[in-house]
Amino acid sequence: MGERMQAVVLSESGGIDKLVITDLPIPSTRPGYVRIRVKAFGVNESEVTSRKGLSDPDFTMPRVLGIECVGIIDEASTGSGLAPGQQVATMMGGMGRSLDGSYAEYTLVPTTQVIPFQTSLPWEVVGALPEMFQTAYGSLTKGLAIERGQSLLIRGGTSTVGLSAATIAKEMGAVVISTTRRAEHVALLREFGVDHPIVDDGKIAKAVCAHFPKGVDASLELVGGRTLQDTLQATRVHGTVCFTGALSDQWVIPDFSPLGYIPFGVRLTAYGGGAADLPPIVFNRQLLAVADGRLKAPIAKVYHGLEGVRDAQADLEAGTTPGKHVVVLD
Predict the structure, then answer these.
(1) In Å, how far are 231, 235, 320 from 154, measured between CA atoms?
(2) Residue 275 · residue 93 · CB < 8 Å
(3) 229, 203 in Cβ contact below 8 A?
(4) How distant, in Å, are the alpha carbons of 18, 66, 115, 146 from that of 46?
(5) CA nearest to 45, candidates 246, 232, 192, 327
(6) pLDDT at site 241
(7) pLDDT digits over 49-82, tens only?
(8) 3-state secondary structure 92-143
(9) Do residues 7 and 306 touch, judged by C-beta distance below 8 A?
(10) Distance CA 209, CA 216 (A)
(11) Are the C-beta atoms of 160 and 184 separated by less than 8 Å?
(12) How far apart are CA 89 and CA 116, in angstroms?
């Protein structure tokens, strides 16, 4: 195009001062890709990890960070089925890691990871949703196959995915138990539909079984390896535990022995999907439910302009306010 845009570029790992607003060429479209004019994006833990230099080998620099965004199609390749002006969301698929991501006025992404939608919700609300709703919904459906009337334990309930999973699971008809390490966050869990909030001291299996003596039907593990065994013990025989996140940064179980670790008859699975696990029909239904008040969007704070990215990452890293930190490009 020969035109320029502003983007936040990370050229070396370090503190938030390494996030530098830079003038770059607007990316040119090519077959199989669409260019999106970015309207809003959530700021995520994985982006903080990338900035610190702790990402997997697929991450390269210099890089425009950002694993998700919502916006408007600016230009689409022939045969994509997408048209300029269309509202879309996108996430994952190498965004902000092996290809430039959403901390920019424009981003170029594969057509296969674009989710069209229609809504009158403000951009700061829609921008909070894609990654956390996709992860929560994928965990509940592909990971756990949750059904109406079943009991669900969410370990790590005040995380963005935990709060999203609670509100989505309630909409699906589940009975929800969810944990927090802070007693002052119990009211927040109830606000998102949690039936039985539990203050987590590291061992909650007995507290869960006080509500469900045989254990819950399904458990979503978001804290990680540090609490997984206790979560398994809180789950009934033939129930399922889905390992989706590791808020404790413990992804590996040292000296893992299935016979000594997993209670007999309890199923252990995992989830780590992408945009394909949030079909447009589902995302549009979720947006309608948010507009109607049947689903809640856990938003911590809204920032305006690329200048807000540093503050958003700093606030996310501080961890003082549960919910999603969202940057809106006005």
Answers:
(1) 9, 11, 20
(2) yes
(3) no
(4) 16, 9, 21, 27
(5) 246
(6) 98
(7) 999 988 777 788 999 999 999 999 999 988 888 9
(8) CCCECCCECCCCECEEEEEHHHEEECCCCCCHHHHCCCHHHHHHHHHHHHHH
(9) yes
(10) 8
(11) no
(12) 6
- Express each pLDDT in 74-118 by its tens digit: 999 888 889 999 999 999 989 999 999 999 999 999 999 999 999
The rounded mean pLDDT for the chain is 94
- The closest alpha carbon to 33, from 80, 87, 71, belongs to 80
Give the amino acid at 224: G
Alpha helix ranges (H) inside the chain = 45-51, 123-126, 130-138, 160-171, 186-191, 205-211, 225-233, 258-261, 280-292, 309-318
Q: What is the pLDDT of residues 118-127, one digit of tens each?
A: 999 999 999 9
DSSP label of 203 = -
How far, in Å, CA of 72 to CA of 38, rounded? 7
How far apart CA 287 and CA 125 sit, in angstroms, is: 9
Structure token pair of residue 134:
């996709």
Q: What span, in angstroms and rounded, lies between the C-alpha atoms of 93 and 73?
A: 18
**Predicted model pTM:** 0.92
Cα dist from 318 to 34, 164, 308, whole Å:
35, 21, 15
Decide if 91 contacts 37 (C-beta within 8 A): no
Token pair recorded at residue 132: 């956390």
Predicted pLDDT of residue 57: 79
Query: How is residue 50 written in tokens?
Result: 């990338």
3-state SS string over 37-80? EEEEEEECHHHHHHHCCCCCCCCCCCEECCCEEEEEEEEECCCC
Q: pLDDT by residue (tens digit) across 197-222?
A: 999 999 999 999 999 999 999 999 99
Cα 166 to Cα 324: distance, rounded to the nearest angstrom: 15
